[in-house]
């Protein structure tokens, strides 16, 4: 009977794996058409200055809205695009779109300091010509390099640390700022961190989620903050969902906050409105510690 059960389990898992592989192939095929057929969009989520309550910038987040399948999460299709190499074309498209939109908003009166952050996958860092591609996009759209930030995860950087650092260095030489995304979830040693050409650390949302109840997470956030201050880095906390998160992060003087508490990622037309109408939650206003820098 045990044997039969094992067999059944085996069949079950093989079937499940087959179904997964099939879905993968299907998504890969559909993704090829997505760009041509205008199914991809860039949404923007504001990043809030925790000392002034103003929008300092935004993160560009890709969205795929498929006519039949509906919304497909980037967590699902980005890994496929990375594996197939489609991420190179898609990533370039996101960069161009984001730079274009941001320059547009600046032209229409948004702050000259408005900074758009774009996610880069490890695969893009392998491309020797990435800095040139980005420089071309900046020239094309008229966006100043200091208005662009690039977010990379520790793990994508660690795939080939020498190559990654070289690319980050040439990007920074252009005047672009760089951020480590999901910070704290990877394995980068502190000695590496010191050598990476870096401006910003983004505290991963897994540490933010329970900040207000879990002393360990609070200690991690505090430690990241101390370290960043010593290294002259800006800290962004992602995944701020409730007032308690904000309260704690403000108490440790975290610079920038991002999360549903302020706004979900929204389509460009909505972000355009946010730029002129956004007012921070009362909680932030009442605790404001400083003015615009
Ligand atoms: P990420 O770069 O760490 O982006 C933050 C994710 O957290 C986004 O998920 C965002 O919608 C979500 N988020 C923001 N605030 C909150 C909050 O308060 N609570 C919770 N629970 N979540 C929040 P999203 O848009 O689904 O993207 C997932 C990941 O997909 C991103 O993680 C990033 O790694 C990747 N991704 C998204 N767009 C791009 C892109 O254009 N290029 C590349 N290479 N990767 C992308
Ligand atoms: Mg990111
Ligand atoms: Mg992140
Ligand atoms: Mg993430």
From TrEMBL:
- Name all EAL domain ranges: 24-279
Region entry Disordered, spans: 280-293
- Protein name, UniProt field: Diguanylate cyclase
Tell me the organism.
Answer: Terasakiella brassicae
Its taxonomic placement starts with:
Bacteria, Pseudomonadati, Pseudomonadota, Alphaproteobacteria, Rhodospirillales
Boundaries of the shown chain within the full protein? 641 to 933 of 942
